[in-house]
Design brief:
CATH class: Alpha Beta
CATH topology: Arginase, Chain A
CATH superfamily: Ureohydrolase domain
CATH architecture: 3-Layer(aba) Sandwich
Number of strands: 8
Shape: globular
Bound molecules: manganese (II) ion
Order of helices and strands: EHEHHEHEHEHEHHEHEH
Largest sheet: 8 strands, parallel
Radius of gyration: 19 Å
Length: about 350
């Protein structure tokens, strides 16, 4: 720490933001989950954590809203050794299932039932690993952030939080509603994370979805009928803005739907695709970087408590670190604001 100079670029040390803090010293711990088994359109998000770590050495650890942001003790938990191999083998099997759907056939009728089961078992194992890693850190009193990977990865974390906190809500920023039941047969699909969270974790009392612009009629039905869900789709956010409502007013509306304890789930594709061109399932429209920044800052400054977060679906392009650059900067802002919020 004595030799650490926040005015210089970080010296890569394998951790986020090249910070010198040990796990013991840390108040925020970041856990990488390099996973893209169920990604339906194009894989690559398993490379997200590593690319973000690399890009994060270039992030200026200054934040005009957070005094001495560089001193925030953030540490990186080494990625779990089982995950890369499990991801690789399960992805190969999942590709057979996805191909089958794309060819217009049903995997179960095409003799792929056992393969599907193996994929689901691998995903359940990933959830268990994440659950155990997060539970341990919560017991130690740390604020935990997950870096994906596809958006299926925080389920184990949400389960751990559900045991730790009696009730909380989720602020979910995403282009998709992620409310599909077992999308393409995958119980733990990236497109099913919020369906699974609401169904299996009773402590989750509300889900506030922001920026959604790509969803199916089944999901629309769930959104209309489940009283826990507050829906702020991209279309109406923009419509309200055209008609004179400021982003500040909209942020307050969004926050009104959130309870006292809030988990932030940030799918990078909630932002405009110019900010995440290589993500798994990009969709036109979406939020600007500064809009998300401001919303998170307002939330952190409110009476509510941020109890954890994830950043998912960041995928680097070949020789193009842009997605990771955006992801690293967003991750630093979430860390800064969550820290500020927890210090109050
Ligand atoms: Mn998502």
């Amino acid at each position: 720490m004595k030799t650490f100079d926040p005015n210089l670029p970080g010296i890569a040390n394998g951790g986020y933001f090249a910070l010198p803090f040990t796990q013991q010293e840390a108040e925020i711990v970041l856990i990488s989950v390099p996973w893209d088994v169920t990604t339906s359109y194009r894989p690559g998000t398993h490379l997200g954590p590593e690319a973000i770590i690399e890009a994060s050495t270039q992030v200026d650890l200054f934040n005009s809203r957070v005094p001495e942001a560089w001193k925030i003790p953030i540490a990186t938990i080494e990625e779990h050794e089982e995950l890369p191999i499990l991801n690789r083998t399960a992805r190969k099997m999942a590709e057979r299932i996805i191909r089958c759907w794309e060819e217009g056939s049903e995997p179960l009728q095409s003799g792929l039932g056992e393969v599907l089961e193996q994929v689901n078992t691998a995903c359940a194992r990933m959830n268990r690993i994440v659950y155990l890693q997060c539970s341990e850190q919560l017991r130690l009193g740390k604020l935990v952030g997950i870096v994906g990977g596809e958006h299926s990865v925080p389920l184990g974390f949400l389960q751990a939080l559900g045991e730790h906190f009696s009730s909380f809500g989720i602020l979910h920023i995403d282009a998709h509603a992620d409310l599909r039941e077992a999308y393409e047969g995958f119980t733990y699909s990236h497109a099913s994370i919020m369906f699974n969270a609401l169904k299996t974790i009773p402590s989750i009392t509300s889900l506030t979805q922001v920026g959604v612009r790509d969803y199916c009629s089944q999901e629309h039905e769930i959104i209309r009928n489940d009283e826990r869900i507050a829906f702020f789709p991209d279309e109406s956010l923009n419509e309200d803005m055209y008609e004179g409502l400021t982003w500040r007013d909209q942020c307050h509306r969004i926050m009104e739907s959130l309870p006292d304890q809030v988990y932030i789930s940030l799918d990078i594709d909630g932002l405009s695709p110019e900010l995440c061109p290589h993500t798994g399932t990009p969709v036109p429209g979406g939020l600007r970087f500064q809009q998300v920044d401001y919303l998170l800052y307002l939330l952190a400054s409110s009476e509510r408590k941020i109890i954890g977060f994830d950043l998912c679906e960041v995928a680097p392009g070949d020789n193009d670190p842009w997605d990771a650059i955006v992801g690293a900067r967003l991750l630093h802002k979430i860390c800064c604001y969550s820290y500020l919020n927890n210090k109050k």
